[in-house]
Fold each of these.
Amino acid sequence: MDHKNKDERIAELEAEIIRLKTALKEETDRKLIDVKNRLQTVADNLPTGQLYQYMYNTRTGKMCMPYFGSNKWEDKLGISMEEAIKNIDKVLSMFHPDDLPTFLKNVEYSAKNLTMFEMEIRFGPNNVHLHLISQPRKDGECIIWDGIMTDITDKKLMEKELARSNHELQAAIESDRLKSTFLANISHEILTPLNGIVGIIQFLDVDHITPEDRREYIDVINYSSSHLIELLKDIIDTSKLEARQMNINPTAQNLNEIMYDLRDFFQTYIQTKLSDDQKKKDIALILDDSRFIDNSNSLIYIDALRLRQVLKNLIENSIKFTEKGHITFGYRLSSPNLIEFFVQDTGIGIDPQQHDKIFTSFHQVQQGNNRQYYGTGLGLNISQKLIKLMDGEMWLKSSIGEGTTFFFAIPRIPVEN
């Protein structure tokens, strides 16, 4: 009887243990469900945030996401919570390719040192910008990161818009500054020849003037008048280009003849048209025709007026900024259908930091009242825009003290027999 009571007692105890285990498991499961529900409620109500877990098994090297916040982010991220939990590789494949290596490197460092990591990534087909912050903890063979990610797409867009607005503001300020400088320069450029003309006319009215003096005075008037005409032409061309009313009118022209005519013009220009100070310069003008098209094939369709204008601007610039040495110009075929022109000088050169600005309206290498070389700052801007209208491009190669070479390339359209 005692043996039977003992067995019954053992059975009762075993049944009680099973009941307690079951009750404990049920209570644990209930609490886990309650915690999960609370966590899910928090996740669902984060306005711009998303909770997640990231797990790495140090023994197997496998990764997974045992928890991934709210399904309301599915449309935003392009993946559901269920998919993210089941397929970590798909999650990683949705990282922007430039961001994934940095993310994996941060995870590796964080796992090794158990330190929090924080970074920004671009994710999913919509290129959503996310800010991640994760804190690791060790759980047996696993390292688990509990983290929150925040959608910062709107913030990034605002930063981009702010940067764009700031850039436009700075551009507007710079434009106003350049226009003010231009007005000051143009005043000087107009008044100088006008004063010369007015002053000389007073001398012409004197009875005892000699024929030699009269000829010299007339030359000054002609030089000053030509300068004013060229200045007004630049202003008119700038206005037409800004209003997109400038037209290119290609006709059949012999390109070689244009180049030789320019050489003859500038050889005369250097001898007769320069001011007395400029005539003191020791400059050789060279036309490099070593790579010209054969004269029998040099007939092309081109706007000769605008081509001469561009080359004239570039050569006059070289004369202005070159004290001694040479100015060489010419062209070559860089391909069967592309003509590349160049104007090279041994002048003062241009700082590489100025290269991007040199074609801007009103911009000049030297600014302020103490600048040595005067001008309106319109020539290069006009030239570049004319070349663009010819479906070409213009660029330069230069550094301070080593001279400057301007290049421009335009399509070659041969005239068929």
Amino acid sequence: MRRFEKYRRLLQFETLLLVVFLALNAFIFSLQSQAAIGSLSQPQTLLQTPPVPPPAAVGGEVQGKQIAAAYSFSMSAGCRGANDPYISFSWSPSASTAVAVAIGTNQSDITGSAEFSQTYNVGATGGVFEGARPGVTYYGTMYVFLSQVSNVHGLSTPSCESSPPPCSPTAPAAPTLYSPTNGASFSSSTSSVTLDWNDVTSWGNECSGTNDRVYAVYFGTSSSPPFLAYSSDSAETVSVGAGKTYWWRIRALNKARAVSGYSELRSFTVGAAVASPTPTPTPITITPATNLVAARSCSVPGPGNNVRVDYFWTRAYAAGRTIDAQWLDYSIYNNNFASGTYTGVDVGTTATTLSLGGFAQNLDYYWRVNTHFSGDPLTTWYPSVTKNFLTPGCGGVVASPTPTPVIQPTPSARFVVTNPKTPGL
């Protein structure tokens, strides 16, 4: 029994050693397999992956026959620089075992056309394919040993052309002025002047601008003339006035609205208006009353103030003028009709005769016709020459004393026809 027990324990120990040995060999074999896959070159790795079955569609995620599609695979592309695209890929869930990713140009044979292949360890979720070619359609998928384990995803890489630098507009050349010349003078009758300048030939960098090329016109009576208007050509007509000096200058704006510097500053002058001379009025010749005649007669014979005098005259005259008053003045004094020494009778504006009675016999009288024209000052009168006459004796004794005349007020603008007063009464 003891010997049997001894052999039984020895058998158990040998059996345990065998199990451990087998398990250890299996573990070593597994490690060697994974290491072999990871150490293979990309072509060698892809050779272990069978061709992908033809997909049903092209572009984006390609749906086709998949073997153990345990992962959702997707790709995106971008640019590192000019002509330098890359493809970024990812999958979910994370790798539960070692996986291989292949990216090629033939969707029917991704591994055969592969330009990228790489194995990833447990827990990986994606990677990057650097060095992809620009403008190429690529397809990618995942494998575990010989089995495709994800969908096929396709995309085209961008061209990654180098972008031109941002355009910076530059200003056009400043316009050069043509006419009027600086300091020019125009007559006072000038009402408008055309500003003229040369077309700009250098418009600068317009950066594909779409605006119209225009000129900004600055014009005014200040030496810093204000903006007046935009002109699409090289001329602008402006209004001017007599007796003023004007300044002007021009700037150019190109299609990108870049503005040139100012042209030179010029000025011109419009002459002052010449005042029309005040016409010298044509003297108006005024002819006072003329042809004065006094006819005397005795109204009744005998003594007393019974002399009648009939006056006749030609009215005063002035071309284009109107008489607005006539007075007949008479006096027994030859003193040029001093104030208070004569009698005045308003005879009206059209009268040329007047009859008066009651004059004394054998006495000298002096008389005149005084005329006023409309529009003249109230004090401006035009007297005729002074005439005199001697009253006749009527067969009686001369009345005594010498009669005192009744004096009329000095004529005014308001003329009232009055009845003549008989001297001496």
Amino acid sequence: MRFIAGPLNKQLLQNLLGEVIESCTRVRAAVAYASRDNMKLFEACAQHLKPLEFFGRYDHTVAVDSAVLKWFLDKASLNFDCKLVPDILHAKIIWWVDAGAYIGSANLSDRAWISNIEAGTFLPHDELVETGMERELLRFFEEVDDRARPLTKEIYQEQLRLADRRSELSKREYGLEQQFDKDRLLPKNHGLVFVDTKRSSEKRFQKFEQDWNDTLQVMRSIASRVSAPRRQTGLDRCVGGPRRSSRPIPARLLLQAGQGWKPPSLRGVLRQEFEEPGTGAARCTGVVALGRL
């Protein structure tokens, strides 16, 4: 078994495709979404003369790009079969029969294969047989096939018209995305293969800002916990139980106290001082930390 996480662990699906396409006897794939920017699986099957049975999703979003549908119609061959499952298909499985199978999260798109954080496993043929997974895959594709309908020219034309109608929606979504990018609270992630050209000073400031915001959130959490009605905890038992005359520390004082701290060291100290690992319960050393504030 191999863990396939793309650029994260240098195990790319396109490399896996190149490894197994020769040794397989045919390909069966159930992948919900297929984009025109990634036809690698289909083209590899055609190039190496491997029969292909593809199951995609059918819905109002044009889950399988019209260019992919046209590719199958143009082939007009029983060796390249496309079927669509209405509404409920969300699987991402590629079975190179007699070679192995990928089961994971990646759709057939360049973003999924190159830059997204995706995760899956590849099981070689021997493991599929030994573990009984080959029988499970056979049963899975039988069930999917029962719920699928073959691609027709009419379905292609319908999806093509729908794609044209969705172009206006795409423009509005793009405008919303642009506005969101101007005001977003978290920095944009351009993908795992993005090359960051920011100057080191900008990166340091961005890291400082992120740590500062994280620190304030930790302070808010501590403030709400300390300001809540007292009940006996491990902290109380350490100091002899809650004092009846004690009053909760105002949350605003705790937040104000945090303004003079530098985020990189504060966040770890607060979590270490105030919480027992894995429990969220206050520890006795928290009294010392509060005194320092």
Amino acid sequence: MVIMDLMPDEVRAILPPLYSQEKKGNTAVFPVKYFLPNSAATWWIMEFDGDDLMFGYCDLGMGFPELGYVSLRELQELRSRPVVLHDVRTNRTYESKEGLPVERDLWYTPKTLDQIKASMLGEEQPPPSVLIGETWTATDPEPEPVEQVSIDRPAAMGVEETFDEFMENLFGSKGLPYGGET
């Protein structure tokens, strides 16, 4: 299975150092979002010490999100529950040997803490216009439209697997027939 690099160079470059946004309060910008597939756990990261320690807004899916410190190494080791998938094309059921790893949300746009909290309550706000925390409000002139570019996300991540190769890497060469033995 291909494991995503949670802290590639381009992410390291946009994460400010620890404590650099502490006086910004709810207007601090969170440039990176991680999530654990097959669960409700989500981490919005706003600062990084350059080695292992990150600071962000953490929601483990239990209804009590909080600001706190997160270890990059622990996120890299964390796995969700094992996954069971049914392939309707072949009428086979596959069960993973272990859960899925934490992923970086490739479609995430940086948000302030106010915007993250509002989105959790279903009250969306416009995203920041730039990574340094400027936000667009209704009183500002509308930003220029940005040219839309189609990106093949798996290819952009360096993943060149087909679906069948992915299933084979995740579940083994044969998978488990529905009701089969391990």
